[in-house]
C-alpha cells in the first residue's frame, strides 16, 4: 500500500520552503517578513533540537554527491538509524508547533513554495517511514543511493533560486539589470540564506573570495581609457573598491548583501564591455 506523503510533516521540505520564503523577502526588501522567517528558523531548528537532528538525517542523503556506492549505502544506514532514534511523539509535537507558527506568523502559502528537489525529499520521507513495504523501501533506497553516487553539478547551488526570486530581483533593481541573475549573484543569495543556520561560515568564505574578485575586476577596469578620460567615473570606481574593503570588518547584513549584488552586476557589465 502506498503511503500518502504529507509535506507539512516533511521536516526537510518545510525547512527548504522557509529558506525560499526568506530569499524572496530579502529580494523584495521586505525586512519584516524576512525577520519573521529567520526567527522561526532559529527557534525551531536551533542546535540539538529535535527538528534540527531530523533535518540532518535528510541532509545527509540529499546533499551528498559523487560518493562511492559503498559510502552512500553506509550513509543511508546511519541516517535511517539516527532517524529511528528520534522520539516520534516528540518529533510530531515539534512539527505541529512549527506548522502552527508558519500558519499564524506567515501564511499557509509557505507550504506551496516550489522546492526543486521535492521528489527527492518525499522519497527520503518514505524511507524514514516504518509503514512502507519492504520491496518499496528497497526500491526507494536504491533511488537515493543512485542520486548520491551521481557527479555533482557545479551549478546546482544556483538552481535553488527560482523564477519568482529572479522576477523580484529584476523588479527591485530594474535600471539596467538583465532578465536573469548572474550565476555569482544566485550563489551569493543561496549562501546568505544558508547563513541563518551555519553561523554564516560558508557565506563569509564565499564573500571573502567574491569581494577580492570584484575589487580586482573594478580596479582593472578603472585603468581603461574610458575611466581615465572621465574623472568622475574613476572616482566612483575607487569609492566602490574602498566600500568593498570595509565589508571585511562589517557584520553581514541586508545592506552589505544588496551592495555586493549591485557590484556583481556592475562587474559583469564591465567584463562584458571589455570583451566587446
What would you say this structure looks like, in words?
With 276 residues, the protein is mainly alpha-helical. The chain folds into two domains: 7-149, no CATH class; 158-275, no CATH class. It is 71% helix and 0% strand. α4 crosses α7. The protein is elongated.
Q: Secondary-structure blueprint of this entry?
A:
Elements: H1 11-28, H2 31-44, H3 50-62, H4 69-84, H5 88-106, H6 118-128, H7 134-149, H8 163-172, H9 183-198, H10 201-221, H11 225-228, H12 231-246, H13 254-275
Question: What's the short version?
Answer:
It contains 13 helices and no strands. By secondary structure, the protein is mainly alpha-helical. It folds into 2 domains: 7-149, no CATH class; 158-275, no CATH class.
Please estimate the helix content: over 70%
Let me know the average pLDDT.
Answer: 81
- Tally of individual helices: 13
Rg, nearest Å: 22 Å
Order of helices and strands: HHHHHHHHHHHHH
Name the descriptors.
mainly alpha; 276 residues
